[in-house]
Write a structure and sequence with these properties.
The chain is mainly α. The chain has seven helices and two strands. It has two domains: about 1-120, no CATH class; about 120-179. The chain has a two-stranded antiparallel ribbon with strand order 1-2.
Length: about 180
């Protein structure tokens, strides 16, 4: 929404996206720069592992939104949120074999969270996030992460249909000259 508002010169959209990001970070944030995708009710389990925190999707998509808000609304604090979320992703989900796992290890994993995965599209989106952060901050370590992600994903790209487009966009952005 922030990016569309910027392109279409709709300040109200940018403002709405900015407010939504603030609400998301305030309500769904936890200690240690992690986010949850739901909050248990008063009568639900509130143990240390529930709800699961630090899932790739819970960190990646808000980080992407924060970069978009930082660009569209010229908010340095939003960029700082994106940087913190990207750091948390790298610290908790990075697999040295390449790519981000979809969740951190848990003491009592629930259902499919017992089996770590390195999802193709989310890792392609993570590459795009790191490319944007590298351009925005000038920090080459983000570009290095993007390069490792793309190298990890490249052998698998032919197996994917629509998700392959996200990878192709990441490759294009990686080799595109800085504007």
């Amino acid at each position: 929404l922030a990016r569309a508002g910027q392109w279409l010169e709709r300040g109200d959209w940018v403002e709405r996206a900015s407010g939504a990001l603030d609400t998301l970070l305030e309500r769904m944030g936890t200690d240690g720069d992690r986010l949850v995708h739901f909050r248990p009710g008063d009568d639900e389990d509130r143990s240390d592992d529930y709800p699961p925190t630090g899932l790739l999707g819970d960190l990646l998509h808000p980080a992407r939104a924060a970069v978009a808000v930082a660009d569209a609304a010229d908010r340095d604090d939003a960029l700082e949120h994106a940087i913190r979320l990207a750091r948390t992703m790298k610290d908790t989900l990075w697999d040295e074999a390449g790519g981000f796992q979809d969740h951190p290890p848990a003491r009592k994993p629930l259902g499919t969270l017992r089996y770590p995965d390195r999802p193709f599209e989310e890792n392609a989106l993570a590459a795009r996030l790191h490319i944007r952060l590298a351009r925005r901050t000038g920090d080459r370590s983000y570009r290095a992460v993007a390069e490792r992600l793309l190298a990890f994903l490249a052998p698998y790209a032919g197996r994917y249909a629509v998700e392959g487009a996200t990878f192709a966009m990441a490759v294009e952005e990686f080799f595109e000259r800085t504007r």
